[in-house]
Amino acid sequence: MSERWQPAWLEQARAARRELWRGVEAQHQVATMRLVDSAREQEVLEGLLEASKPPLPRAAQGSHYLVFTPFRYTSPHPSRFRRAQAPGVWYGADEPATVCAELAWWRWRFLRDSEGLREESLITEHTLFKARFEGVELDLMRPPWNALRARWRDPRDYTDCHALAEALREGPADIDAIRYESARREGAACAAVLRAPALSIPELHAQQTWTCKVGPRRVLFTSKTGGATLSFEFGPEAPAA
User: Cβ atoms within 10 A of the Cβ of 36, count?
Assistant: First the structure.
């Protein structure tokens, strides 16, 4: 990796404060309510579920659940700035439309990779919420990092992104997040937050509800708040990442 970027480039990291949007599938409460007949039973069930989950990392303790959830679990599947089974990363974006673009890709990939669902349609509901980031970020959209733009946005190969994230976690640089250009919406900014303490959820934070319809070639996101619809087209030639 040092052949592609220089350690001195890390000095470009700067303190920043931003509002970031993130999307989660709105199904947890509905799924558990189907199993109970009272508020007391719901409380007991939620307690049992909580006890069965992995313990929170020390750095995430005390955070809002919308912040700590991504840091609590590992995954056998890699993401752009996280290897398989590596520590969690909280992904967000500057705009709700960018969140929808990223979610659309992964929902479509799920449909395409599920043999029995490839020609079907799936409908899910998602809550988009706003969090506050305050920390040190490395902005890959600015010089000198943007000279390697194609590597940070590569739709198939995350090797360089993984190597950079590991260097930030293991190196001396105290960097909380990576700001980068979305691979699904050109020119739009995303953030990969590596440390939970850099995030907070304001008490009166903004939320939006979107319905997602995934088909073999198209994903539609419709806002239940403002009525806007976003359409994303995919096809067999789309890169497998």
Answer: 14
Cα-based angle 203, 207, 210 (whole degrees, multiple of 5): 160
Query: Is the pTM above the cut of 0.70?
Result: yes
Using one digit for the tens of pLDDT, what is the confidence trace for 58-91? 777 888 889 999 999 888 989 999 999 998 999 9
Cβ(180)–Cβ(192) below 8 Å: yes
Q: What's the half-sphere exposure (Cβ side, CA atoms, 13 Å) at 42? A: 10
Task: Output the six-digit token pair for 82.
Answer: 């996280």
Instruction: Supply φ then ψ for residue 233, to 5 degrees.
Output: -100, 135
State the Cα–Cα distance between residues 59 and 101, nearest whole angstrom.
30
Count Cα atoms within 13 angstroms, Cβ side, for 135: 24
The two counts, helices (H) then strands (E), for the chain are 6, 9
CB half-sphere exposure, 98, CA atoms < 13 A:
20
